[in-house]
Amino acid sequence: MTISVHTNKSALVALQNLNKTNDELNDVQNRINTGLSIANAKDNASVWAIAQGQRSDIGALSAVKMSLDRAQSISEVSLAAGGNVSDLLVQLKEKVVSAQDASLDTQSRSALDADFKSILRQISQITQNASFDGADILDGTTQSIRFLANADANAYITLSGQDMSLGGSIITIASTASITTVTLAAQALSDLNTSIGNVNQALGNLGAQSKQIEGHNKFVSKLTDVLQAGIGNLVDADVAKESARLQALQVQQQLGTQALSIANQAPQIILSLFK
Length: 275
What we know:
By secondary structure, the chain is mainly α. The protein has two domains: 9-35 and 237-273; 71-234, CATH 1.20.1330.10. It is built from six helices and two strands; from the N terminus they run αααββααα. It has helices at 9-34, 45-99, 106-129, 182-235, 239-265, 268-273, and strands at residues 144-148, 156-160. The protein has a two-stranded antiparallel sheet with strand order 1-2. Helix 2 runs antiparallel to helix 3 and helix 2 packs antiparallel against helix 4. It starts with 8 loop residues before the first helix and ends with a helix.
């Protein structure tokens, strides 16, 4: 090998190897620091692009879950209110049946009528205040509400309105109904029996829709978890493996530094030739 004071090939080779080791060491340290084997497009463009696409889906699914959470809350409030309305209708029937007793005196019949109208007012108050986040599906103002069902925002789950206002399609008994006479009580009983059946059916429909929303909400949560795990499989670093690699590279770095030091001392041999 030619000995030259201008070009030290051994030192150049040692420096190249040391630089390569330092680059690999920086990469391993970045993977350990971030916990990612692919942190940007430079690391692996195709895998990074796939992971970014999955991250966008997860972001969209978080909006879907928020919409479904709102739907679930609205349905639960409505079911609770509807259950109370059903209980009040049962109480109304007791009053109405009692009012058909022809032997009642005027005072007793008036007391029953007062209780009857008080319960009717309670039903109105419940249906008008069964709202969550401004949405009330029991007061007759809302036909239906659609909620997001997928990340592409092109599928929906519908929560149908159940008009439980007095004198409506479900509760047919009017807010002005009275049981001051046997005849009026008989008419009220007929409307009440129809209303009880309608309310039970409406609550059944509402319960089925609520169950669907709850089930789909759970599915969206699981899908989000699966997508998150999929991204991890693509880009997460094996920290244990990287730790072992770090120690190996640190040894190589030390050896490379020593090799470069030895190579840099080689030209000193030339001085001994001129002693």
